[in-house]
Design brief:
Helix content: over 70%
Largest sheet: none
Shape: globular
Number of helices: 12
Number of domains: 1
CATH architecture: Orthogonal Bundle
Radius of gyration: 18 Å
Distance between the termini: 54 Å
Amino acid sequence: MTTREHWIAGARPKTLPAAIAPVLVGTAFAGYNAKALNFFLALIVALSLQIAVNYANDYSDGTRGTDNDRVGPLRLVGSGVASAESVKRAALIAFGVAAIAGLILAARTNWLLLLIGAISIIAAWTYTGGPKPYGYFALGELSVFIFFGIVATLGTYYVHLEELALDVTLAAIGIGSLACALLVINNLRDLERDAKVGKLTLAVRLGDRRTRALYQLLLITPQVISLALTFDSRYFLISLIALPQIIRIRTALRTGATGAALIELLGKTGRIQMIYAVSLSLAALLAQR
């Protein structure tokens, strides 16, 4: 029997910082003109989409058999804990919640957001779903960077002020890089298994050594962004607070952490993203005083 704990595990809570971080940052850069209701609606959209894509991936990979005997978080379909149809239904419910919240946001700001939302939902489903899932052709990281970095951060900023700005665009690049890092470390863990079943993720194409190098680059990029933002305000030095943790993770990678050992690094990457998002948000608010 599928329990509540199974469904929570299947939603992959460690990936949720990728949804929360851009909403926090986009709102903080909007500053004291941010609208509370729009913040909560944007947060609902982001979290619902993240949960939906996690369930959708579970369903699609599970029905293809690529999740069998996989190391890492619980796969509901692959483990046999839940039926494929029930997981698909959970994904559709989450997509529905995101669509309703997005509809309200569009009504409050700009109806163009409906088009962006529709594209986001299609991208989420076709990541591992459909006849030719792009996640199987090394395009997952690019999608995550665009939708959980650029679109989510700039979109949140836009629903507050209905305009865009250079500084929040730079911040979006940093947030997108960390969202990519979550997927890269996840795919590094699954590299050997994915290669065996023909799932050609970017990690499979790059190989172990270059995937580790890419992951480290993605962790460092937000720190470089923070330094660039100091030309606007020295407060952005606050967002370098995660640097010691990044250095420790790089050390772990260099010692050859593999398989189940990378699960811990996935959680740490999520924490780094939240630390970066919160500290960057604080810096943005202080810079506007």
